[in-house]
């Protein structure tokens, strides 16, 4: 008679399916993340590399014009 | 505590957390302060004929010292300069050290009449552009802003104080095109064009015609009428040829015939100076007197082969004043 519990290989298969779905979901949201976003869009950069290049003089820490501090809400999502 | 900032330079108005960059990739929030990381660190420096910008009614046959840094606030699928514009400062093979004074000195040394802020988009390297342009003015050099015009009104107004001419891309007269192909919007670009005109900057417009995407003649007619009404009938319009590039390699180059039809449509709509770029040997490269059709300036590619304008920019036959900056 068949057990009502899943066998070990069934669990493995289920985990594989879940992993694939998570992967697919991640891929899809990543694609959505590159779609145009207005208002809160920003990008991740390699901040350590930026700092290193600034220290080496290859990039600049010149302060930008036209910006202001804002309260930490509604950050949006990095991409 | 994470100190985030909002950049008010362009219509995106990115809210940038500490350690992040704006959508342009080069304006970086370090410890709560926004840094223009490519200030004085261009990745492209060339001497170009001003006709290459293209500017056809601005000091013809002179050279423009042309600079650009990494980054851009548009992300056009067909970008011609994507290795520069779609990367940040840390991804550049070359970062020249050229503070504003160095650029001005080099431009003078090379005998250039102007400095062009170009290739990627000077909007995102705003501070570098502004400071260089201010110094250039003092050194009797003109300033050219080659841009997609995606910038907020107040920053642009201030920049116009030191700008002499612009060639602004009007990529299509269609907001859906802007959203899909460039990730930007149409309205701010139209506003920027009007601001340039209001502030007395010499304006020429470029429209890159892409087969099937923005080659509809009815749309081209609407665009030409808008330019005529808002910027003036004497505003030069350049139709430029598309070549498959970057993420848009599935479409063919624009047939010359399409550009010829676009030019006719814009002339019929009342624009006086409509040019065709990237097609060698076409009469659409030349400037003709809008009153009597006299050939005024003949061009081959970016080279001026004949110039019959009077010193003060008039038709030698009928004395018609030709709009532009001629000396
Ligand atoms: Zn004439």
Folded structure, characterized:
The complex is a heterodimer of chains A (79) and B (327). Chain A is mainly alpha-helical and 79 residues long. Chain A has helices at 8-33, 47-56; strands spanning 43-44, 67-70. Chain A starts with 7 loop residues before the first helix and ends in a 9-residue tail after the last strand. The model of chain A is unreliable at 27-39 (pLDDT under 50). In chain B, the strands form four sheets. In chain B, strands 6-7-8-9-10-11-12-13 form an eight-stranded mixed sheet. The mean pLDDT of chain B is 97. Chain B is globular, with a radius of gyration of 19 Å. Chain B has helices at residues 82-85, 100-109, 126-138, 153-160, 175-182, 186-198, 217-230, 256-268, and strands spanning 4-7, 15-16, 20-21, 27-30, 33-36, 44-49, 63-68, 114-117, 142-147, 165-169, 202-209, 237-241, 274-276, 287-288, 295-300, 303-307. Chain B has 327 residues and is α/β, with parallel strands linked by helices. Chain B folds into two domains: 38-285, TIM Barrel; 291-321, no CATH class. In chain B, α7 packs across α8. Chain B is 25% helix and 22% strand. Chains A and B meet through β1, α2 and β2 of A and β1, β2, β3, β4 and β5 of B.
Keywords for this structure?
heterodimer, A: 79 residues, mainly alpha, 2 helices, B: 327 residues, alpha/beta, TIM Barrel, 2 domains, eight-stranded mixed sheet, three-stranded antiparallel sheet, 8 helices, 16 strands, 25% helix, globular, binds zinc ion
Overall outline of chain B: globular
Q: Roughly how many Å apart are the termini of chain B?
A: 56 Å
Overall form of chain A: elongated
**What percent of residues of chain B are in strands?**
15-25%
Number of strands of chain B: 16
């Amino acid at each position: 008679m068949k057990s009502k519990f899943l066998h070990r290989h069934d669990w493995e298969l289920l985990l594989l399916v879940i992993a694939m779905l998570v992967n697919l979901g991640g891929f899809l949201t990543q694609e959505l993340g590159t779609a145009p976003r207005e208002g809160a869009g920003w990008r991740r950069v390699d901040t350590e590399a930026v700092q290193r290049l600034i220290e080496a003089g290859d990039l600049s820490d010149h302060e930008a014009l036209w910006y202001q501090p804002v309260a930490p809400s509604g950050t949006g999502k990095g991409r | 505590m994470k100190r985030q900032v909002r950049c008010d330079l362009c219509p995106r108005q990115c809210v940038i957390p500490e350690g992040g960059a704006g959508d342009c990739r080069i304006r970086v929030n370090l410890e709560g302060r926004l840094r223009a990381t490519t200030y004085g660190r261009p990745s492209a420096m060339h001497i170009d004929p001003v006709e290459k910008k293209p500017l056809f009614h601005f000091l013809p046959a002179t050279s423009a010292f042309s600079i650009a840094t990494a980054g851009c606030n548009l992300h056009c699928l067909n970008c011609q300069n994507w290795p520069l514009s779609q990367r940040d400062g840390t991804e550049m093979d070359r970062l020249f050290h050229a503070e504003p004074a160095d650029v001005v000195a080099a431009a003078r040394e090379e005998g250039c009449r102007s400095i062009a802020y170009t290739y990627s988009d000077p909007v995102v390297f705003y501070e570098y552009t502004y400071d260089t342009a201010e110094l250039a003015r003092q050194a009797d050099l003109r300033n050219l802003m080659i841009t997609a015009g995606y910038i907020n009104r107040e920053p642009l107004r201030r920049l116009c104080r030191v700008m002499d001419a612009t060639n602004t891309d009007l990529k299509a007269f269609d907001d859906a095109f802007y959203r899909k192909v460039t990730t930007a919007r149409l309205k701010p670009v139209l506003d920027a064009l009007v601001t340039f005109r209001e502030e007395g900057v010499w304006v020429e417009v470029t429209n890159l015609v892409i087969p099937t995407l923005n080659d509809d003649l009815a749309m081209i007619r609407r665009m030409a009428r808008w330019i005529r009404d808002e910027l003036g009938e004497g505003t030069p319009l350049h139709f430029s040829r598309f070549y498959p590039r970057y993420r848009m390699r599935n479409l063919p180059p624009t047939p010359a015939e399409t550009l010829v039809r676009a030019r006719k449509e814009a002339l019929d709509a009342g624009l006086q100076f409509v040019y065709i770029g990237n097609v060698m040997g076409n009469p659409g490269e030349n400037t003709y007197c809008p009153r009597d059709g006299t050939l005024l300036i003949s061009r081959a590619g970016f080279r001026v082969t004949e110039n019959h304008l009077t010193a003060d920019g008039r038709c030698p036959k009928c004395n018609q004043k030709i709009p532009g900056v001629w000396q």
